[in-house]
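User: Modeling request: complex.
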Amino acid sequence: MASESRIESDGLFNAAEVTTSGRPVLRRNEVECFLLSSVDLDSEDDPPRFASLRSGNLILTTHRLIWIPSSQPNASLPSSLPLSSITHIFSHKKSIKSMFHSPRIRFQVDSVVVVTVVFRGKGDFDGFLAKLWECWRGRAWEEDEKSESEASSGSGGGTVAQGLYGNDGTVRMVGLAGILRKEQEQWESTDKSLQDAFQDLNALMSKAKEMVSLAEKMRQKLLSAPSSQNGGGDDEEMGSKEEMQQWMLSVGIISPVTKESAGALYHQELSRQLADFVRIPLEQAGGMISLTDMYYHFNRARGTELISPDDLWQACNLWEKFDVPVMLRKFDSGVKVIQNKSHSDEEVMSRIRTLVTKTETLRTGVTASDAALTLKIAPAMAKEHLLSAETKGLLCRDMSPDGLRFYFNLFPEIDPTDLHLVKDFGTYGEWVKATSLLSV
Amino acid sequence: MQKLGDFKLPQFFNYPPYFTLQPVRDTREKQIQLWKELILDFCKSQKVFLIGVEEDFPLFSNSAIDRTLSHEARETFLSAIVGEGRAEWLDKGRRKCLILWHRIQDWADIILKFVRENGLEDSVMTVEEIRSGTESLGTELEGIDRTILMRALKLLENKGKLALFKGTSADDEGVKFSV
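Assistant: Request completed. Predicted assembly structure:
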């Protein structure tokens, strides 16, 4: 996931992890708030250190300022600055002088270094400043520390309190009843948070983060459950668990790229985020997924920040410009799909070849749904693969009242000067054997 | 492998894609070639001179695998034979096709050979005698399609090998050989 190994922190900046497509890797509970392009970082106190931080994208999150060099080869690495280390943000002085140079923000870090952020490009500079103030004052990082320390003290307290009574004086449940009771309590609290979440949209928005972590927790639980319970486990239960897992997985993007947060770079950033996101659905779909399916998965994961089909289309088209491991592909039939760059047609073709040269399928041919089962892909995709295998001359078709079937193409092997000749070797011979077995 | 009368069908006659007109060019070309050869072989061995596109030509369906050629496929295969000069459409609507497993020129040569072998160089015969006379029994000329025979005879007449004349009955014509 993270392409950059952690470089040494120089005391002021930390190396920022980015995904292979160049999106920042956010930490737990961190939410992306704003993005500006063509930003230089500068300081009068320590110019050499800032020399390389020129014309990059500056991303503001609830926890950090992240500076990422723009796409061209750049000597500098992605760097981040925790908002917690900012000790003062200088107010924006309106002077005659300020009207002539690029807008800038100055803030003090660790009460020592004054950093100047210079905006060379266009963008909502005032909006950024307002958000920076908001995030800095919001102190989201303190909440994390608090919850972490609570969590550790909670579990610590449990071990300290021995006997029948808990620290707070209530009767501690022990044994099976205790476990059941605890489970019940957990369910009640889960139920409550679910109810709160659905009360209205605003509540849902504020609960989004919690919901995602809840979903993740439930998924983990589901994953571990089958092993702890009786090993057999009936199929229906397993099926519903898998389904549940699917839902949980698709709840996922905590910080979707929006027009508000990314502005002019909306499509670019969306494109990068999409490239990161598609990996899992793509893997499940067998290396290729239709654009329509992806639209559904992506929007589902984005929750309320839905994108339009056109946005998705543009985001996919931008992949050509970035070094991402996925690509958009258009079949001759007009079907558009997303596929891994590593997903090679040769491999699919060789799997189709193996499929259609089995004794059974040599005789009966295959339908798109047969191929879908074997290749573990969607029937529509399987049909595309079969059609392209036909175009390559690997397969040929049989149209009958029962529908369209594909057979291994025997035509090239048949000798037109001797219609009755069947060579012992070759697939034609195998086909003759396979069909004669049946007629005997 | 099943037979049609005394005609032995090739193995690929039971290959279902053989009965679907293939959309991919290379595959289709090979398929057309195989149909061309099979139709000509069959017509030659069974002395079939005329194929009606809409009629039940034995090769056009295979009950063993429950497949029948579409109208488009039949017309495509027959047109391919026509394109090679081995058949002719008898009507503009392309419903009847005359199969020439021997070209007219070859038929003319067969007639000349027949005339020489039977010492008929200066004789007179009716057209019907050539098709069904005792001399032609067991030769390729036995039961030859009348249209084809007449065209071969006309070709020979143009070369001065024979003269055609109206016979005594209105429906028969006489041939005076002068080889």
